[in-house]
Amino acid sequence: MPRISIVILTFNSIEFIKSCLDSIFNQDYQDFEIIIVDNGSRDGTSDFIRKEYPWVILIENKQNLGACRARNQGIKESRGEWILTLDCDIVLKKDFLFRLLNVIKDLSPQSGMIQPKILNVDRETIYSTGIFLSSIRRFYDMDKGKKDNEKFNRSRYVFGACSAAAVYNRQMLEAIKEDTGYFDERFFFLVEDVDLAWRAQKKGWKALFCPEAVCYHYGNSSGYARKNRQYLCLRNRLFLIFKNEKLIGKIKLIPLFFIYDLPRLLFILFNYRRLNLRKEVCVR
Question: CB within 8 A of 57, min separation 6: which ones?
């Protein structure tokens, strides 16, 4: 059985998938398997993978089922002790897996998630060093947009890992799995990694930022419609709070709803009358 299973999502991703896969096969460490889940690509992505990388496991969906279900499909198919989820526009530094395994061997039993250092494609600015969840339940990628320097080379515990490049302990995933999957498929896309991290935290699992493992993210490669992102961010934020927050916490957040969420909701209702998530949201 491989030590690491790598689960990659694709959707019309022929422009990015070669760089992603080549960076994996050029790793110093080679004990891994790759599962690609394609969400109904129409640009020849699946044909390209079958022809150029016939040894990878390819799951083909006829339509866009969303990031959550696609990742669940890949995790279910995987066999590794650890699962690395990747967006198709991620490129791994050559020693990424070797550095990652060096960290894994010394982890505490409570460590269920690892956040690599994700840099933007310029290799100078940070995309994410982990998920932060504030007291008013706003969430964002930590240190995003900051210039990388020595300050970001220290390991630390964070709230959760950004699923664009995140490492999950299989034992943790099985322990927190719900009827709706490892990633809750009701989210479809966006915020699902925050939900998973919150569920894991409530059961005593921790997330560790691992600056030694570095990867590069093109970002915004999916080209999904802005209106869909706005709708899903709002809907999934409210669902996240309703699902995970304690009753007293929900009561305290009611004033915030009227100040922060209600104006966004009214904007969406008046401006976006029709949304077709499966057709328009390009989840990679």
Answer: 33, 34, 35, 36, 77
Beta pairing, strands 131-133 & 126-128 = unpaired
> Which distant-in-sequence residues (6+ apart) come within 8 Å of 20 by Cβ?
8, 86, 88, 89, 90, 91
pTM above 0.85, yes or no: yes
Q: Which residues pair with 231 in a beta bridge?
A: none
Contact indicator for 92, 27 with CB cutoff of 8 Å: yes
Q: What percent of the chain has pLDDT over 70?
A: 93
Instruction: Report the b/e string of 109-133 with b at 16+ CB within 10 A.
Output: eebbbbbbbbbbeeeeebbbbbbbb
Answer whether 237's CB lies under 8 Å from 180's CB: no
- Chain segment 162-206, per-residue pLDDT in tens: 999 999 999 999 999 999 999 999 999 999 999 999 999 999 999
Helix (H) or strand (E) run with residue 48 in it: helix 45-52
